[in-house]
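MULE transposase domain-containing protein
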Amino acid sequence: MVPVENGEHWTWFLRCLQSAGVLLSSTVIVSDRMKEVIIVMEVMICYETSSLINACTVVCPDAPHRFCMRHIIANINTSLGRRLASSEEAVVFKLARSDSQETFSRLMEKMRALNPDVAAYLLDIPIKHWVTFAFPRPTYDNVTSNLSESANQWLGNELRSSDAVMLHFRYMHHLLKDINERR
């Protein structure tokens, strides 16, 4: 639909959603927090400007922004130059699902004992963007963008580069084929 992901195109896309009535007051933005999403709206951890976050602050400034924990873990792995141990990853997910400051503090101490570098990395991210108790809306235990990742996998790469009409046609064809196979 757009030639490149940048601020202008994100703003256009979000305004299209807004004019179609899709961006509601209950909208929550969940991003992958990859290299372009490392600026945080009010805390200047400005490694690189995020076109998505900038567009969101213009078009839907009241929508809270949550970071996907799978992508944060991938960023930690890249930063450390190795994969987190399963025990470390489990604590990261427990931290993200903390339902109180006390639980978060207790788990953060556990993470500091397991891996101080991971604890420091996580504490550089404002908790309101990744910890359940600090997020302003209910999260229903969702701390990842798995639903959208599943949709992307289901639709396939060929659909990502299609024009809008062909995209809709292929989506409907894929959906009908999937329904027919389940009968």
